[in-house]
Every structure is written in C-alpha cells, then in structure tokens.
Amino acid sequence: MPIVVSKYLIGRKFVGLALWPFIIVKSHRLKEDTTFVNHEEIHLTQQRELLVLPFYIWYGIEYLIRLIQYRDANRAYRNISFEREAYCNEDDLFYLKYRKMWSFLRYL
Ligand SMILES: [Zn+2]
C-alpha cells in the first residue's frame, strides 16, 4: 500500500493513520517501522472488508460506546475492536497472510 509522509494531513495526537488506500505518516522514520506499518496495514484490510465508509462509521460509534464504558479517551480508543485486533497482531508480520475475514469481530 502507498505510504504518504505528511505533517499536515493528520492531527497532533496521531503519528500516522490508515486512510484507505493510503497509510499516512508524520515522518520518514515511521515508514521503516515494520510494526507500525503492519498495524496500519491491518486497518487497511479492515477498511477494505467493510467497504471503507462503514468502517469509519463503525469506528466512530464504537469509540463513543467505549468512551461511555471506560470514561477515558485513551482506554476507549485502545479498546475499539479494530484497534484491539491491530495492537494484538501488529508484531506478527505474517498475520495478514493467514487472517480470516471479519477477524475484528473476535475482538468486540
Ligand atoms: Zn490503530
């Protein structure tokens, strides 16, 4: 997937994000970070299998639900099913080779 380096496309809170079909990062150093890139590739796969737009809607709704549940923005973000799956498997560089479709559902 194409990786775009830009300080301006992403907010101060993030160092990078997956915006299908691109991975946008703040610095060139992150392009070499295989764990970081794998995390974002997992999000691109999730976005593709949800036909992109529904991913963002689901992500936003689940974030709000987790925010009510945890009353903490960072814990809410870390517990979104898409993030749970990405954080649990970002170190496994072969994860996307054997991952089954809709696997994020196991992290709900
Ligand atoms: Zn993530």
Spell the H/E element sequence.
EEEHHHHHH
Task: Look at the helices and sheets and give the structural class.
Answer: mainly alpha
Characterize the main sheet: 3 strands, mixed
Strand order of the largest sheet: 1-3-2
Task: Give a list of the ligands.
Answer: zinc ion
Low-confidence stretches: none
Radius of gyration: 14 Å
Q: Using DSSP, what is the number of strands?
A: 3
Share in β-strands: 5-15%
Principal-axes shape call: globular
Helix content: 40-55%
**Would you tell me the overall average pLDDT?**
94
- The number of distinct helices, counting runs of at least 4 residues, comes to 6
Name the assembly state: single chain
Taking the alpha carbons of the first and last residues, their distance comes to 26 Å
Question: Can you describe what's shown?
Answer:
This protein has 108 residues and is mainly α. 53% of the residues lie in helices and 10% in strands. The longest helix is centred in the middle third of the chain and has 18 residues, at 53-70. It has helices spanning 28-31, 34-49, 53-70, 73-78, 81-89, 95-98, and strands at 3-5, 16-19, 22-25. The chain is built from six helices and three strands; from the N terminus they run E-E-E-H-H-H-H-H-H. Helix 2 packs antiparallel against helix 5 (81-89). The mean pLDDT is 94. The radius of gyration is 14 Å and the shape is globular. The chain has a three-stranded mixed sheet with strand order 1-3-2. The relative contact order is 0.13. The chain has a domain at 33-107. It binds zinc ion (ZN).
